[in-house]
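#dry-run=false #mode=assembly
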Amino acid sequence: GENVEQHPSTLSVQEGDSAVIKCTYSDSASNYFPWYKQELGKRPQLIIDIRSNVGEKKDQRIAVTLNKTAKHFSLHITETQPEDSAVYFCAAKEGSTLGRLYFGRGTQLTVWP
Amino acid sequence: NAGVTQTPKFRILKIGQSMTLQCAQDMNHNYMYWYRQDPGMGLKLIYYSVGAGITDKGEVPNGYNVSRSTTEDFPLRLELAAPSQTSVYFCASSDRGLNNEQFFGPGTRLTVL
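#status=ok
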């Protein structure tokens, strides 16, 4: 199956700074890479995703980049705010029709005011 | 739409007891999933289903069973509960098409003592 590694496990930034979280995956046929945000005690929720035919995607302060050759993808959050504090999970969908997602271990992001 | 619902929210079991975690979705999604989330370990897939009557194992299926008799419901059965099954359990569903977003339920926090 797919193996997804995520770094760092914790990240602290000052409000207004940028935050970057990186993930690598093992299955070269993987074709879909979502990022989920999970606030304390809540369910994971999709914040952005990217497909293998696209190198970069932006949505306001959030962007994701994908390097298929190197098998890594990253989440970039600019102008961070305290409400961005949460655990962020990357995931990779295996390259078959089954649709199974494999998740990274998560990054606890803390944004200090 | 209620989305994905799960019951119960919390449960304490004694070692060796059995229980069923309920999951239902009203989005007419074909794909449904069960994950467990342990601290610092991300989400691990237990079982999944690609449609009524079809289920398959994920990464960590031992000690669990599932059934999918309808599109809406996907219960997870724990037989002979063990302390290692103490975790937060999330059910999720997704569309079969190009939109691969998984929608998560609110979770069930299970403690086995």
